[in-house]
Amino acid sequence: MVIKRLKGAKFGTDRIARVVTGYALYEEGKGYIAFSSDRDEFGILAPYIPCGGKRALQSILDAGGFCSFDGMEYVQELGA
After folding, report:
1. Is 57 part of any domain?
2. Which of 4, 9, 52, 76 could cross-link 31 (Cys pair, CB 3.0–4.6 Å)?
3. pTM
4. Containing structural domain, residue 6
5. Can you name the residues that pair with 18 across neighbouring β-strands?
6. Domain count, the chain
7. 39 part of a folded domain
């Protein structure tokens, strides 16, 4: 799992999408980590981007990652 910078990245469908900017956790071959409960009113799921930015994500990785992936999904950027 690595930290990747997103700038103007689109998530959703061809008809409607959320545009996000910030740092997120990325798993090669799977996508960005997102919480299932974070879907918006249109059902679009975007990656977890914490307020603490890169430092917050680095502290998660330094602590050994997540204890459980229950309630989490992988999402792909549009056009990826």
Report:
1. yes
2. 76
3. 0.88
4. 2-75
5. 11
6. 1
7. yes
Mean pLDDT computed over every residue of the chain: 93
The answer to whether position 47 is within a domain reads yes
Q: How many CB atoms lie within 10 A of CB 65?
A: 11
What is the DSSP annotation of the chain? -EEEEEEEEEEE-SS-EEEEEEEEEEETTTEEEEEGGG--TT--------TTHHHHHHHHHHTTS-S--TTEEEE--TT-
Pairing of strands 72-75, 31-35: antiparallel
Tell me if 80 is assigned to some domain: no
Residue 79 predicted with pLDDT over 90 = no
User: Residue 64: phi, psi to the nearest 5?
Assistant: 105, 5
- CA-based torsion, 1, 35, 5, 15: positive or negative: positive
Which structure tokens are listed for 72? Answer: 């989490």
Q: Read off the pLDDT of each residue in 51-79 and give the average, rounded to a whole number.
A: 92
